[in-house]
Design goal:
InterPro entries: Cat_transpt. By secondary structure, this protein is mainly α. The chain is built from 19 helices and two strands. A two-stranded antiparallel ribbon has the order 1-2.
């Protein structure tokens, strides 16, 4: 009976979360449809407006129109707000509203916050919310101040402060929208700007629970298993991606001649960080080496940390399966890490997540191969890269996004939505799961594997 109640409750919460994001996208579409949202009151087609609202709410950054050239100041601010709310979760702002009017959170709201931030215990809701709001404000305000030292000198006080705030928010939220027209390609020689951006991207993608553990380490003198696994996996992917890109892009011919060794290293470092769902880029993605494109696709598929502003299958999922594979190869029955043993339900959930993600990506790729035109200089990677970028809420593209057909735009929007809301939440909200638990267990039998 208790399991049935929990199942029904989870289904209800999943539906509420899905409808909450749909409401935000709808609201964003209405505001972006206003003539004042575009430069010269030119307006935007309905499908492009919905696509932009979905991309902003799902903090992806894929664009069918140039953000800097098409959208007015009002439109850009709407995109900024949608990205902020989408990154922190609309439940975060609901809790803020409750605090402002000094009302206690009811059980339903606390459960929604718990699910949206991937918390284990309901008691963590209030304390984690403080860190979510506080850390977000600290990173974004601090980032804007640091960026203003660069941008104010370039654009003057008014434009410089606006660009600093916009870029700080988009970097921390891992959204990928820019107001320059070509992402950060015009700043590839500005190592200071790139380093600040890298810090903001990592800050947003590491996860609020991990940051809370790190900030409380001086009191607790320990980290949770989740934080240890996250830091280990994130560090491994960070170093591996950087080293591999140093090899595949060893000459970095895309940079101007005479570029310093330090700046070349920073650009490579930035290239290894941005596919972790940031979407900002200093080098044209379509001109990268094939090996580099493959590495970016792998990093986009993995993504960031649960409970962060990042997408993908998440670092913890990748870490659990990596340790599971190592344990199996060593003939161990248990999957151990940091003197702890992962539960079988954890491993099964990770396997199911990867399987479902693979099915969704494969199906979307198949559909797009039939609806989209692939340029002669590209192959299947032209489609796969776009699909992984949407599912991982990254925002990078080999150039397909502006040329998507209506069907292609719908498919990419669905991928962005699933990537942001979560594949489990999305599918559970659509499916009718059985709540009667069968007590009959059939005999066990093995089959041939591999």
């Amino acid at each position: 009976m208790e399991k049935i109640k929990q199942s029904k409750l989870f289904d209800t919460l999943s539906k509420k979360m899905v409808w909450g994001f749909i409401f935000l996208i709808t609201l964003g579409t209405i505001f972006l449809s206003l003539p004042v949202a575009t430069r010269g009151m030119q307006g935007t087609s309905f499908i492009d407006t919905v696509f932009t609202a979905a991309s902003a709410t799902c903090i992806t950054g894929l664009t069918v129109v140039n953000t800097a050239q098409h959208w007015s100041f009002f439109g850009q601010v709407v995109i900024l707000i949608l990205s902020e709310v989408g990154a922190l979760g609309y439940m975060t702002f609901a809790v803020l509203l409750f605090n402002i009017i000094r009302r206690n959170l009811d059980l339903s709201t606390q459960l929604m916050v718990k699910e949206s931030l991937n918390l284990e215990n309901l008691s963590d809701t209030k304390s984690v919310m403080k860190y979510v709001v506080g850390l977000s404000a600290l990173f974004q305000i601090g980032g804007a101040v640091l960026l203003s030292f660069d941008f104010v000198g370039r654009f003057g006080w008014k434009r410089g402060l606006y660009v600093s705030v916009y870029h700080a928010v988009m970097s921390f939220c891992n959204a990928g929208f820019d107001v320059f027209g070509n992402s950060l390609m015009g700043f590839r020689d500005d190592s200071y700007l790139l380093i600040v951006t890298i810090i903001l991207i990592i800050g947003g993608g590491l996860g609020f629970l991990v940051w809370r553990d790190l900030l409380l380490f001086h009191e607790r003198h320990r980290l949770s298993l989740n934080s240890k696994l996250t830091l280990m996996t994130t560090g491994t992917l960070f170093v591996a991606g950087f080293v591999l890109l140093l090899v595949t892009e060893k000459d970095l011919s895309l940079l101007p001649k005479g570029t310093s060794w330090f700046n070349r290293t920073i650009n490579t470092l930035f290239l290894s960080v941005t596919p972790r769902t940031a979407g900002l880029i200093t080098l044209p993605t379509s001109s990268l080496q094939s090996g580099s494109v493959f590495i970016l696709m792998v990093l986009m598929f993995v993504g960031g940390t649960p409970g962060s502003t990042a997408g993908g299958i998440k670092t913890t999922t990748f870490g659990v399966l990596m340790l599971q594979s190592i344990a199996q190869l060593r003939g161990k029955k248990d999957v151990e890490f940091s003197h702890r043993r992962f539960s079988q339900s954890n491993i099964s959930r990770a396997l199911l997540l990867v399987f479902l993600a693979s099915v969704v990506i494969a199906l979307a790729t198949l559909i797009l191969t039939q609806t989209e035109r692939i340029p002669k200089e590209f192959g299947l990677e032209y489609i796969v890269f776009e699909v992984l970028s949407a599912f991982g809420t990254v925002g990078l593209s080999l150039g397909l996004t502006p040329h998507l057909t209506v069907i292609g735009k719908v498919i990419i929007m669905l991928l962005m939505f699933i990537g942001r809301v979560g594949i489990f939440t999305s599918l559970y909200s659509l499916s009718k799961r059985q709540t009667k638990f069968n007590q009959i267990r059939y005999p066990e039998e093995n089959i041939l594997i591999g």
